[in-house]
Design brief:
The structure holds two protein chains of two kinds. Chain A is an all-alpha fold. Helix content of chain A is 78%, strand content 1%. Chain A has one domain: Orthogonal Bundle (MetI-like fold), CATH 1.10.3720.10. Chain A is built from 13 helices and two strands; from the N terminus they run H-E-E-H-H-H-H-H-H-H-H-H-H-H-H. Chain B has two domains: 34 residues, no CATH class; 211 residues, MetI-like (MetI-like fold), CATH 1.10.3720. Classes of the chains: A mainly alpha, B mainly alpha. Chain A: InterPro entries: MetI-like (IPR000515), MetI-like_sf (IPR035906).
């Protein structure tokens, strides 16, 4: 190994410094300011003064039913959508790998390319556009879903959380699919052949070879998806249910945004944001440490 | 009846293909629905049989986008935001990823960990203090605030994507160039960047998507319709009185087409980014 000369150390710092400064100025400073705001009252509608509030905004979090409700809703949303995405995504990946490995020839290749392209679309559609399209599709009177089912259910009113979960699963399942496809395709074909020679049926091959080899990737993908789903669920809910009916789909990011920009209560919003940060950074940080240990 | 091994395999693959076709159609349905509704006259949009074909198609909703909803400027604003996000993310993230990959210094591991954790910051949590800061700086109602916000959330991701690409560049190439007297900076620009081009393409694609699709920053920072990008312009079509569904779906198509075309064209890089980036 080469020794770390001062010149190389300087180069390392110079390469990374601009990024560190940018993130420091544009992320760290606002987050410190967020901490400051959480300890103050600032309601520009009633007064332009920023007044010290001690820990009252923080302690209020634990008794505020808006917050406790949003934690429950966000958790339900996260768990359900990630489980659906991982299960369906993995299943589709195994099916697609099966097609790619066993349907050779021009048709087989064309087929798997077309299917793969179709799965890219939800991933490429901006969340806000996808959300509005789904909102129309699920409409009670002029939505095609109800026409197909012969019903007239206002899905977003009667099953709001389920609808949001379906929309998120539609958008993010392909992501899991492509990650899992890479994992499935990296299994040595000789393993399948050996098992088949031993007389193992496809169900046995699935549980003895395929699933055990991809399980670690499944878990880590699911865990990262969970952090992502918990922290970034906003556009879809904002454009479809707006958090309603009642509090049914008031996820945490939406509560923070509404407290700040609809109710103009920046102190309370900052305390809520701090809570969201603690949860996502705590979970995300733990995840990174676990991942590093297992490497 | 007993089937041979290869016949069984082909049968299995064919049924897998049928299942996949059905799911793939569900995946395409929302975009197809957007396209369909965007060309229907209003009377047919609000019909009890929404799936039946309208008697005539109309381009009127698309025309309204530009006449009533200032989509011309919105497209420009979206391009500016996405373009600037690409430039900032790569200009800062490229060297940083290379530095982390090749010139580790004491504490660079911690710095990298911080950058990765920064990816997990809730945008809604960042937007609250940034709003007040942008207000004090006089940067509300300008694309600058949006660009800064989107870039800072995207930068860690770009570094994370690029680092493995730089690690794959053979060290010998760089060492030879250094022996020829090139400084580390020149080695990076002249030797490493061209070799890591697939990584750069991947980072460009994801940065463009981040800038083009972001909603929360523009909807918070921008109230002036002339400064809005496409994403927050869409919200304008939902007023307290009515929703302009035809225009909304047409606008959805305008917003959706560029990323879909780009993802198709750069499919190879998109998939590579999925595997290394997440």
């Amino acid at each position: 190994m080469r020794t770390q000369s001062p010149r190389r150390r300087l180069a390392g710092i110079l390469f990374t410094l601009p990024s560190m400064l940018f993130v420091g100025a544009v992320m760290a400073y606002p987050l410190l300011y967020l901490g400051y705001m959480a300890l103050h009252t600032y309601r520009p509608l009633t007064s332009s003064e920023i007044e010290p509030a001690g820990l009252s905004n923080i302690t209020a979090l634990f008794t505020d039913s808006t917050v406790t409700n949003s934690l429950r809703v966000t958790l339900q949303f996260t768990v359900a959508s990630v489980v659906i995405e991982v299960v369906v995504g993995t299943a589709c990946a195994i099916l697609l790998a099966n097609v790619m490995l066993n349907l050779k020839g021009r048709f087989g290749r064309l087929f798997s390319r077309v299917v793969a392209s179709a799965f890219i679309v939800p991933f490429a559609v901006p969340a806000i556009a996808g959300a509005y399209a789904w909102r129309m599709m699920l409409d009670a009177q002029f939505g095609p879903v109800n026409e197909l089912l012969g019903t007239s259910t206002p899905w977003l009113v009667e099953h709001p959380l389920v609808s949001i979960i379906v929309i998120d699963a539609w958008k993010m399942m392909p992501f899991v699919l492509f990650v899992m496809l890479a994992a499935v395709m990296s299994i040595e074909p000789s393993q399948y052949e050996a098992a088949a020679l031993d007389g193992a049926g496809s169900v046995r091959i699935l549980f003895r070879i395929t699933l055990p080899s991809i399980l670690p990737v499944m878990l880590i993908t699911g865990a990262f998806r969970a952090v992502d789903a918990f922290t970034k669920v906003f556009d879809t809910v904002f454009a479809t249910t707006g958090g309603g009916p009642g509090d049914d789909t008031r996820v945490l990011p939406l509560v923070i945004w509404r407290t700040a920009f609809t109710h103009l209560d920046f102190g309370t919003a900052s305390a809520q944001a701090l809570l969201a940060l603690v949860i996502s950074l705590g979970f995300g940080g733990a995840l990174l440490i676990v991942q590093r240990r297992n490497r | 009846m007993r089937l041979t091994y290869s016949a069984r395999k082909r049968l299995g693959a064919t049924s897998a293909g049928v299942v996949l076709t059905v799911i793939a159609l569900v995946m395409l349905a929302p975009m197809a629905w957007m396209a369909f509704v965007s060309t229907k006259p209003d009377a047919d949009i609000f019909s009890r049989t929404p799936l039946s074909a309208p008697e005539e198609l109309t381009g009127g909703h698309y025309a309204n986008l530009f006449d009533q909803f200032h989509f011309g400027t919105s497209i420009t604003n979206s391009l500016v935001i996405a373009g600037a996000t690409v430039v900032i993310s790569l200009l800062l993230g490229g060297p940083a990823a290379y530095g982390f990959a090749r010139y580790p210094w004491r504490g660079s591991g911690v710095a990298l960990a911080f950058l990765i954790v920064a990816r997990m910051v809730t945008p809604a949590a960042l937007v609250v203090p940034m709003y007040t800061i942008m207000q004090n700086l006089g940067l509300l109602n300008s694309v600058t605030g949006v660009i800064v916000g989107v870039s800072v959330l995207n930068l860690p991701f770009v570094i994370w994507i690029l680092k493995p690409f730089f690690e794959q560049v053979p060290k010998e190439v760089e060492e030879a160039a250094e022996l020829d007297g090139l400084t580390p900076g020149w080695v990076f620009f002249r030797i490493v960047l061209p070799l890591a081009l697939p990584g750069i393409m991947t980072a460009v694609l994801y940065s463009f998507l981040a800038g083009w699709t972001d909603l929360i920053f523009p909807m918070t920072f921008i109230t002036d319709a002339n400064v809005m990008p496409l994403t927050s312009s869409l919200l304008q079509m939902q007023t307290g009185y009515r929703i302009y569904w035809g225009e909304l779906m047409a606008g959805g198509i305008v917003l959706t087409l560029p990323p879909v075309v780009l993802c198709f064209a750069l499919q190879k890089y998109l998939l590579r980014g999925l595997r290394t980036g997440y």
